[in-house]
Amino acid sequence: MKPLGSITRGTTNPNRLRRVDNWIAVHLGGLLGGAEDPLVVDLGYGASPVTAVELRSRLSRVRRDVRVVGLEIDPERVAAAAPAADPPALEFRRGGFELAGLRPVVVRAMNVLRQYDESEVKQAWSTIAQRLAPDGVLVEGTCDELGRLASWVTLDAAGPRTLTLAASLSTLDSPATLAERLPKALIHRNVSGEPIHGLLRALDEAWRANAAYSAFGPRQRWRNSVEAVRAAGWPVLDRPARWRLGELTVPWSAVAPRLSSPYS
Description:
This protein is an alpha/beta fold. It has helices spanning about 20-25, 30-35, 50-60, 75-80, 120-130, 185, 195-210, 220-230, 240-245, and strands spanning about 40-45, 65-70, 90-95, 105-110, 135-145, 150-155, 160-165, 245-250. The chain is about 30% helix and about 20% strand. It comes from Planosporangium flavigriseum.
């Protein structure tokens, strides 16, 4: 089957996806632990296999026999990644949204849809979700070059489930900068009248209102900011232990686009 999709720019860096990997290990660890075949796909790993290698290492702490397959459309990238392979634990193959015929329990697709039009996102989500193992999950999003700002959506066969915003608190100037790294489905929706705009504004206002907590460190400031966002009525998920890491997760229904898109 011909790979579905377009070749990405391929930019990557070591530890760029550390935040999403650790989130997957915690939130999808139970899914991996109970899977008959603990197969994970790193879709569009880029010009270097480093993030796939790191994903396998991090998830092996959850389940030692986890298998990671890195998929790339560009055959030259697949060939370049071959020396890093360690079958069956880590392999690299040519493939795209069709997942090369695999049925993974988890797919990580970071910085893949960023180059697509918003109108193409729904079809890409659907194509991948249809090829997941039963109860499988797609984690799709974007991050900056160093992984200091990131966001991702989780989806299954029924559709989007959650949105997570994540930041390196030691370098965070303002939560408003997270708008630059929203998933493709939301990055053009940071406008008045859209829920994601309201969430980012509430978080930014809370961050400024809790500036005094900076004396106790950025984690305390972020935690109090997230608590303020929740008190304002946003359905924030998870516990304070996750908030302190610079995360905020909400149900997709809280941020799903409402207005007609100029890209549809």
